[in-house]
Amino acid sequence: MDKPSDDDNFEFNWIQMRKEVGLTDLTVFNEETGTEKFVRKVKENPLVPAGALLTTLCLSLGLLSMRKGQTQMSQLMMRGRVAAQGFTIVALVTGLCLKAASD
C-alpha cells in the first residue's frame, strides 16, 4: 500500500481540527462570491468607490471638454481628476489604518 503524501496529511489535519473545534458543518467554510465581496468592501470603506467614481467623472468630462475645444473647462476637469485621485488614495489609506487599528 502507498504511503500517504504530505497533501493527504494536511487534509487529515484540517479534518481533525474541525472535529476538535466542533465544526462539522462544512457550509461554514463557503467562500463569498465576487458580488458579495464587492458589497462588503463598499460597506467597509464607501469613500474609495465614491472617489473612484468622481475620478472617472472628472476624466470623462475633461476629455469631452478637450474634444469640444473648451480648454478652460478641460483644464479644470483634469485638475479635478488629480484632486479626486488624491482623495481616493487618502480614503484608501485611512480605511486601511482604521481597519488595522480595530483588529
TrEMBL record:
<dbReference type="InterPro" id="IPR007667">
    <property type="entry name" value="Hypoxia_induced_domain"/>
</dbReference>
<feature type="domain" description="HIG1">
    <location>
        <begin position="19"/>
        <end position="103"/>
    </location>
</feature>
<keyword id="KW-0812">Transmembrane</keyword>
<keyword id="KW-1133">Transmembrane helix</keyword>
<dbReference type="InterPro" id="IPR050355">
    <property type="entry name" value="RCF1"/>
</dbReference>
<dbReference type="GO" id="GO:0031966">
    <property type="term" value="C:mitochondrial membrane"/>
</dbReference>
<dbReference type="Pfam" id="PF04588">
    <property type="entry name" value="HIG_1_N"/>
</dbReference>
<keyword id="KW-0472">Membrane</keyword>
<feature type="transmembrane region" description="Helical">
    <location>
        <begin position="47"/>
        <end position="66"/>
    </location>
</feature>
<dbReference type="GO" id="GO:0097250">
    <property type="term" value="P:mitochondrial respirasome assembly"/>
</dbReference>
<protein>
    <recommendedName>
        <fullName>HIG1 domain-containing protein</fullName>
    </recommendedName>
</protein>
